[in-house]
Design a protein that fits this description.
Radius of gyration of chain A: 20 Å
Oligomer: heterodimer
Order of helices and strands of chain A: EHEHEHEHEHEHEEHEHEEHEEHEHEHE
Structural class of chain A: alpha/beta
Mean pLDDT of chain A: 97
Strand order of the largest sheet of chain A: 3-2-4-5-7-6-13
Radius of gyration of chain B: 19 Å
Strand content of chain B: 5-15%
CATH superfamily of chain B: Thiamin diphosphate (ThDP)-binding fold, Pyr/PP domains
Helix content of chain B: 25-40%
Structural class of chain B: alpha/beta
Number of strands of chain A: 16
Number of domains of chain A: 2
Shape of chain A: globular
CATH class of chain B: Alpha Beta
Strand content of chain A: 15-25%
Low-confidence stretches of chain A: none
Largest sheet of chain B: 8 strands, mixed
Distance between the termini of chain A: 50 Å
CATH superfamily of the largest domain in chain A: Thiamin diphosphate (ThDP)-binding fold, Pyr/PP domains
Number of helices of chain B: 12
CATH architecture of the largest domain in chain A: 3-Layer(aba) Sandwich
Number of helices of chain A: 12
Largest interface: A-B, 42 and 45 residues
Strand order of the largest sheet of chain B: 2-1-3-4-6-5-7-8
CATH topology of the largest domain in chain A: Rossmann fold
Largest sheet of chain A: 7 strands, mixed
Number of strands of chain B: 8
Chain lengths: 384, 312
């Protein structure tokens, strides 16, 4: 095992290369660029021996991954923000075609106006595509999650694409140490990729032709069931990786000092890590508050959130907004609780457009939330 | 190869869902006879997605991957890269797309795949309309042709896709037509034998789209060539040559027939004759074809083997 002190993007690239995909297809976009540049360096040094297709758009990046995956190869790509949005059609396609493509998405603001900082609206707006979605909070977690993503995506009971999200700049461009296991550890953990289905001249099959409603509904239902299987498998795979590498970042959620908590903060991404500092401060001051960092947004951890609701009131901080509704995590948390728990759920929209959210802000939000009415969501940190 | 010597094996099976008189099925049969069973097809949204028939059935005896409208060339890039990694150089990857998926929505992915030197054959079967969606105009629709979105006839001339592809300077580019089976077969076989990106465009006269009788498909293709509204040519490593009747027209060994010999059979041009002859537009069509051939002669005609890139 070695320690790699590097940015989230470069550590993500390291993990992707160590998973040995046969095909990588990618298109550059800030702030994902250093990730695809790192892959190009692995190619130049002969450390990556797969095909690296520098396509002419993100739409083609995903289409090429779809083609490669359908031909039976492990595939990887990375994008961000507008790139992810351009892929939207092909995200649905990859999931409906049941192709275990793995992708890193660097969460970045959507324009106009142009803004390259962190915001989770890009990936949140892809939540209905059938992709499994992870949100990371450290570079170590990025490495470990990318490796686990391949295992999960390719599992015979899942066979769905997986998106590993990391926040722009806070993670993508920030150097943090990550322990990198030996190549043999990754090889053993993932095993050789065997496609569940592929284009095969010895067994010629037509994939994706016209399908009537009587079969289409089965396709959708099978995808949904695969996500339910993923719910069970994500904690199992996380534990297996813990045995292999020693690292564990939680299953569907990461719980931090929740014991005895009367309030639990729910958040995602790097803000989830910042929350830990706030929890420490608040507990020092005698507040009974803990953190549940949502690592997996799809499949949504409904049962786990009900359990939290049966213990404490929930304060949800969203770095996204479904315009005309509310923050996605807040919205879905309340939906999970409905009829199952009487917990008070309140929320904040914070940090949009890359606005900094420090532990002090989180402490302030917590204090404000204590006086919130149930179901109330406020905007935090407005300039006026 | 002579028609009688074509392989008897069929990879496009009977009972497919094509319209009677469909030119795409003629093209598919010829292409798959030329390529054989070690072929993987990538098909975007187009009539062929219907010809494949309804799940759980298929009319193809080669693996087919359907993909989104604009994504055929990119999807094929992925298939080809994966096969290369798996050491399967024995398999030919083709993208099979209509003119809408090629001239319009798919042109970016196509240009990208050609520029990246993808080892595949991109085949455009060109019926000059969005036929699968019900006959709307495309970049390949000729001037004055009726479609459901050009109710009084298209006001623009079609683009020269073949020449756009030539500008990529790939190893092999060809235009052909379903009415000339030996020409189609030979060009696809040649494309198969060459490494790198290949582009073959096949004119495919569509009975419901062009509004002609379904027993006239082959004749409509022949007339398109004989009138010079379409041309047969190939360009191998930047060496251009016209073929068949098109070669004779280029070299002025025969006169091209007046374009009306072709359009008078097609209901999509019938408004040019009713209530009276539309001399202005008929003349414009004829003149446009003359200009096209003048340019062909200037660019490619002087000596066999002049390179498109070297001509001013």
């Amino acid at each position: 095992m070695t320690i790699m002190m590097d940015t989230g993007n470069r550590i993500a690239a390291k993990a992707a290369i160590m998973a040995k995909p046969e095909v990588v297809a990618a298109y550059p976009i800030t702030p994902q660029t250093t990730l695809v540049e790192a892959i190009a360096e692995y190619v130049a040094r002969g450390e990556y021996k797969g095909e690296y297709i520098c396509v002419e758009s993100e739409h083609s990046a995903m289409a090429a991954c779809i083609g490669a995956s359908a031909a039976g190869s492990r595939t990887f790509t990375a994008t961000s923000s507008h790139g992810l949005l351009l892929m939207h059609e092909m995200l649905h396609w990859a999931a409906l075609a049941r192709l275990p493509v793995v992708m890193c998405n660097i969460n970045r603001v959507i324009g106009p106006g142009w803004n390259i900082w962190v915001d989770e609206n890009d990936s949140i707006s892809q939540r209905d595509t059938g992709w499994i979605q992870f949100y990371c909070s450290s570079n170590q977690e990025i490495f470990d999650t990318v490796i686990q993503a391949f295992k999960l995506a390719e599992h015979e009971k899942v066979v769905l694409p997986v998106m590993v999200n990391l926040n722009a700049f806070i993670l993508s461009h920030t150097s943090l140490p990550a322990e990198i296991p030996k190549q043999s550890t990754v090889d053993e953990f993932l095993g050789k990729y065997v496609a569940q289905w592929k284009l095969d001249i010895d067994n010629p099959t037509t994939f994706g032709n016209i399908i009537g409603p009587e079969y289409y509904v089965d396709v959708r239902r099978a995808m949904h069931e695969a996500q339910q299987h993923a719910k069970k498998l994500i904690p199992q795979i996380a534990n297996e990786w813990k045995k292999s590498s020693g690292f564990y970042h939680g299953g569907l959620l990461e719980y931090y000092k929740c014991e005895g908590a009367e309030h639990i903060i729910l958040s995602m991404g790097a803000m989830g890590a910042e929350c830990k500092v706030a929890i420490d401060e608040l507990q020092k001051a005698g507040q009974k508050v803990g953190l549940a960092r949502v690592r997996v947004f799809r499949p949504f951890p409904v049962e786990e959130i009900i359990t939290l609701g049966n213990q404490a009131d929930l304060i949800v901080i969203d770095r996204n907004i479904s315009i005309g509704s509310e923050g996605a995590l807040f919205n879905e948390t309340k939906a999970a609780l409905y009829g199952e728990s009487g917990a008070k759920a309140t929320g904040f929209i914070a940090g949009l457009g890359g606005k900094d959210v420090t532990y002090k802000d989180i402490v302030t939000m917590y204090m404000k939330a204590l006086t919130h009415k149930p179901r109330e969501q406020q905007w935090y940190g407005m300039e006026g | 190869m002579a028609l009688k010597d074509f392989p008897v094996d069929e990879c496009l099976l009977q009972g497919n869902a094509a319209c009677p008189g469909c030119p795409a099925t003629i093209g598919l049969r010829l292409v798959l006879k030329a390529l054989g069973k070690k072929t993987i097809m990538v098909v975007p949204a187009c009539c062929t997605a219907v010809i494949e028939s309804l799940y759980p059935f298929t009319s193809f005896d080669v693996p087919v991957m359907n993909i989104a409208f604009e994504a055929a060339a990119a999807g094929a890039s992925g298939v080809e890269a994966a096969l290369r990694m798996q050491g399967r150089s024995d398999i030919t990857v083709i993208a099979w797309a209509g003119d809408g998926g090629t001239y319009d929505i798919g042109i970016q992915a196509l240009s990208g795949a050609l520029e990246r030197n993808t080892n595949f054959i991109y085949i455009c079967y060109n019926n000059q309309i969005y036929s699968n969606t019900g006959i709307q105009r495309s970049g390949a629709t000729p001037y004055a042709a009726w479609t459901t979105t050009t109710v009084e006839g298209k006001t623009e001339f079609r683009k020269e896709m073949g020449e756009i592809i030539l500008a990529h300077h790939i190893p092999y580019v060809a235009q052909t037509c379903i009415s000339y089976p030996e020409d189609v077969f030979g060009k696809i076989q040649k494309a198969k034998s060459i490494k790198g990106p290949k582009y073959v465009e096949i004119l495919a006269p569509c009975p419901p789209g062009w509004r002609f009788s379904m027993d006239k498909t082959v004749e409509m293709g022949r007339l398109a060539v004989e009138t010079g509204a379409w041309s047969l040519w190939e360009c191998e490593n930047d060496v251009m040559s016209f073929n068949g009747k098109s070669k004779l027209i280029l070299e002025k060994k025969i006169e091209r027939k007046p374009v009306e010999e072709w359009i008078k059979y097609q209901g999509r041009f019938s408004h040019l004759y009713k209530p009276e002859r539309d001399e202005k537009r008929l003349k414009a069509i004829e003149e446009h074809i003359d200009l096209l051939w003048e340019r062909y002669r200037k660019c490619y005609g002087k000596t066999e083997g002049s390179t498109p890139s070297s001509v001013k």
